[in-house]
Write a structure and sequence with these properties.
Layout (H helix, E strand, L loop, with lengths): L2 H5 L2 E15 L15 E8 L6 E10 L9 E13 L5 H28 L20 H4 L3
Antiparallel strand pairs: 1-4, 2-3, 3-4
Length: 145
């Protein structure tokens, strides 16, 4: 691979949003005592079929899907990114590295989009906090159907 790949074993190729839903909740009355609602993030990483060195990361961030008027917005964002992994990495290293890189790239894009879109809404910009990459999936994904 190129010198760039040797220096950076995981290369970000591109990102695209497949869902960008931000709804201003009618009837919201700001309450300074209300604790902020945190986002629920789900991330999935997988190899792209037919190419052992290309991976896809997908992240979905949701907040207040029930449109509770205690909170100003209902948010449902999802985006994808593709990554090229240097062939010097083992499969385990590649999978771990893409998970970490995808989390940073995808959540950063979602945070920026939410801030930009809500900044043009009646209740003002919403700044999403940090997202922590965990080793276990959220409760909703661990429960049997």
């Amino acid at each position: 691979m190129s010198d760039e790949a040797a220096t950076h074993p995981i290369i970000f190729e591109h990102l695209f949003f497949v869902r960008s839903v931000v709804i201003s909740v009618p009837g919201h009355i700001p309450n300074p005592e209300m604790l902020p609602m945190g986002p629920e993030n789900t991330i999935h990483v997988s190899k792209i079929e037919g190419d052992a060195r290309r991976y896809e990361g997908k992240m979905r961030t949701v907040m207040n899907l029930a449109a509770d008027p205690q909170y100003p917005y209902s948010i449902d964002m999802e985006c994808f990114a593709h990554f090229l992994v240097d062939d010097t990495l083992t499969e385990e290293e590649a999978n771990r590295g893409v998970h970490i890189t995808a989390h940073n790239v995808l959540y950063g894009a979602i945070r920026e989009a939410v801030s930009w879109i809500t900044g043009r809404q009646p209740y003002g910009p919403m700044q999403l906090g940090l997202s922590v990459l965990r080793t276990t999936p959220p409760k909703a994904e661990t429960q049997a159907p």
